[in-house]
Amino acid sequence: MSLTVDWIAAHALVLWATLLLLALLVGDSAWRRSAQLRVAALAGHREAAVMRWRTGVVLIAVMAVLFGSIAFAVGVGAPGALAGFDSSLAEQLRAQLPLPALRIIAMLTVLGGTAWVASAATLVLLALLLCRQWALACVWATAQLGIMPLTYEIKALVERPRPWHDHGFITEAGWSFPSGHALGSMVFYGMLAYVMLRLLPMRWHRAVIAATVLLVGMIGISRILLQVHYFSDVIAGYACGLIWLLLCIGAAEGIRLRRA
Fold first, then answer.
1. Contact yes or no for 184/115 (Cβ under 8 A)
2. Which regions in the chain score pLDDT beneath 50?
3. pTM
4. Residues spanned by the domain of 54
């Protein structure tokens, strides 16, 4: 495992870019599939759903298993393979990542911080209320208000210390598992994408999905590169955030389709 961790740390920035590119390709594929379903629904004089309910249920189940598996591996106390990988990767990143790269990454990670997300979420809520999108505004507020309780309750339950670093570009207090930035960015930017898909013309949908995937991926991976979270913290944050996001989108879609 040591050689694998060393290789990952040495190529961390290239791997970051590669993962973001793969995420963009997956997002674009999802957009293409959604566009096909939309065309088929319109041809059958039906309302087009953003996502099929079966797909949502499967994704929630998979994410629940993933999150539960990571939480168990992290919370059992004994340093297993996952904990060993996390610690080794954090140590190698601290030793190998160049300081100029960390300085840039530290600026990017702010886009998933509590202050930015809370401020932007409030502005979006006000815009939805001004546009008289009452149901959408209610689901939006519910989704955003759920971020903090989810994050802090799980952190308090697991109580995992953060990795140690000495680069000085960013410091974080509190427990490490799961990553609040990963969870919050998944919910905030994911719901923002859903709102925009609902309200913007279809020609903008592809760009919205690409920007969302890029932002969420960039924020989560930046937490690992800055060594303020372990790899498993970020994956668990994504999984937990996606579960909450899908539940909120499902509620919004249910309201919309019933009205239609």
1. no
2. none
3. 0.85
4. 2-259
